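Box 3.1 A note on notation
Throughout this textbook, protein chains are presented in two layers. The first layer is the amino acid sequence; the second is a token string describing backbone geometry. Keep the layers aligned when reading.
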Amino acid sequence: MRYAVACKPCGTGAVCQRREGRSKKYDLARLAYLAPDITGSILAGSQPRSFSLRKLLRGMPLAWADQRRRFGYG
């Protein structure tokens, strides 16, 4: 359900997945490469205001330093 809520403009997570040609499993697998400090701040609710699921799923660099720059962690 959490995926569907994050995807409100499309209506449901399934609609977004079909539209964008990727699966929820693919998106979740990509999150395994997210820097641990970024993951921790998301879980604690202290991520930057500019951070969003849409921004995260749009493209994520593999290097943790690049992730921090892209997502507003300095």
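DSSP finds six helices and no strands in the chain. Residues 23-74 form one domain.
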